[in-house]
Amino acid sequence: MPRTRLFESVICQKYYASTDAVPEHMCKVNPIQEELVTTQTWLKVGESVCALLVALPFGNLANTTGRSLVLILGISGQILADAWIVAVCFFSDTLPLSLVYASPLLRSIGGGEMVMSAIIHALLVDVVTEKNRAQAFFNMAVMTLIAELVAPAIGSMLVDWQGVYIPLLCAFPLQVANMVIFGLLPDTRVPENPENNDDNCDSVGGGHSTETSDKAGFASWWKSLKRSCAPFQTKAIWLVTVCYISTMLARDTIDFLVQYVSKRFEWSLAEANYLISVKALVSMALYLLLLPLIGRALAKKYSMTPPIIDLWLARASSLFGVVGPILLGLASGPVVLVISLILFTFSLGFPFSIQSYGTSLVQPVEVAPFFSALAVLRITATLLMSPVLAMAFKYGLKAGGAASGLIFDIAGGLFLIAAVGSSLLR
Question: How many CB atoms neighbour CB 325 within 10 A?
C-alpha cells in the first residue's frame, strides 16, 4: 500500500499542478486512478518481461551453483529496484514518474520475485518428505501471511503518522537480513547422474575459440530448456499447470483490492489496507488449522494418500474461488465485502495443494526444472493478462456500481477453469 499511495500522491500533485501535498480524498477522481492503474500495470509487465528473459538462466544457475547465490542476487535486485522507485518519486518535482519503469531491469537480477519463489519451493521439496510436502508449503505461506498480517497495519499507521516514505525505507533493513539468512542456507541440491556432467569437464582447459564457446553456450541453453520441459510429458502435468496458472492469475486480482475499496467505498488507502490484514488472519487459520485438520481426517477416515488429499483439498478450494470473488465484485456494503473476502481467502490454498499434487507426478531430479518451468509459464501468463486485468479494472472504475467489480468476476472465471481442470485429474 505505501508504494500505491506514493504513486497516487505523485500523480495527484502533477494532476493539480501543485507543489504541496494534495488531500487524499481529492485524488480519487477517475483520471488519477486510471493513471495509477496504468503505472502499476506497466511496472508489472516490465517485471514480467525481464523475469521471462532471465528465468531459465538463473534457474539453471541455481541448479549448478546452489540456491543461496541466486536468492542473494534476487534480494539485491529487489533492494536496488525499490531504492530507485523511492528516489524517482522523492525527486518527482524534477524527474518524470515514467523513470520508475527502469526498476524492472534492476528487479530482474536473480530472476525476480517469481523465480525466487520457485527456487524457495524447490529448496523446500529437497528437504521434506512427500507426506509433509503440502503442509510445508502451507507453513511457508503462513510465514508470508504473518508479514501480511503485521506489515499492512504497521504500514497504514506509519503512513497516517509520518507519510509514505518511512514504511518504504523500513523495508530495506529487513531485505538485508534476508540476504544474510539466504547466505547461511545449506546446499540441498539433488545430485545428478555423473554421466550428465561429462561436458562440464571439457570446459576446464583453455584456448577455446569464440565459435566453440558460442556453440557450448547454445548447447547449455538448449540443455537447460530440455531439462525444464522434461516433466511435461503427461496430460496430468499439463492440467496441473493450467490449474496452477489460472489460480495464480486470479490471486493477482487481490492486488487491486485496496484501490478498488478505496475508490468504491470512499475509504482512504490506509483504511482499505487493513483488509489485507483481515485476509492474512483468515489465511493463517486456513493453513494452520482448517486444511491440516481436513487432510488428517481424509487420511484417517478414507485412507487417502498425500497426493490424493492434496487433489481433494484443491477441488474444494476452487469452489470458494468461484463464489468469493464474484460476491466481492457485487458487494454493496462493508459487511458483504468482508464476508466475500473471507470466502475468496478460503480458495487461496489451491495453488499450494495443486502444486504439491503435481510434484508427486514427477521424478525427484525433475522437481527443480518443473518449478522453474512453472515460474516461466506464470511469468508469461502474467505478462499477457496484466494489461487485460488493468483494462477490466479501469472499465469498472468508469462504469461504477456493480460493474466496478468486473475484475473480481474475471477472478471467479479463472477459478472456474481450475475447478473443471482439477475435476479431470485422477
Answer: 29
Nearest to 415 by CA among 340, 327, 317: 317
User: Residue 417 to residues 256, 350, 408: CA-CA distances in angstroms?
Assistant: 21, 12, 14
- In this prediction the pTM is 0.75
* Boundaries of domain holding 378: 2-187+232-424
DSSP letter, residue 187: P
CATH number of the domain within which 269 lies: 1.20.1250.20
- In whole angstroms, give the CA distance from residue 336 to residue 261: 12
Q: What angle do CA 86, 88, 90 make, to 5 degrees?
A: 65
The whole-angstrom separation of Cα 291 and Cα 332 is 30
| pLDDT per position as a tens digit, 264-289 | 998 998 889 889 889 988 988 888 88
Question: 66: left (phi > 0), else alpha (psi -120 to 50), else beta?
Answer: left
pLDDT of residue 203: 40
Q: 317: Cβ–Cβ under 8 A, 6 or more apart, which residues?
A: 346, 347, 348, 349, 350, 353
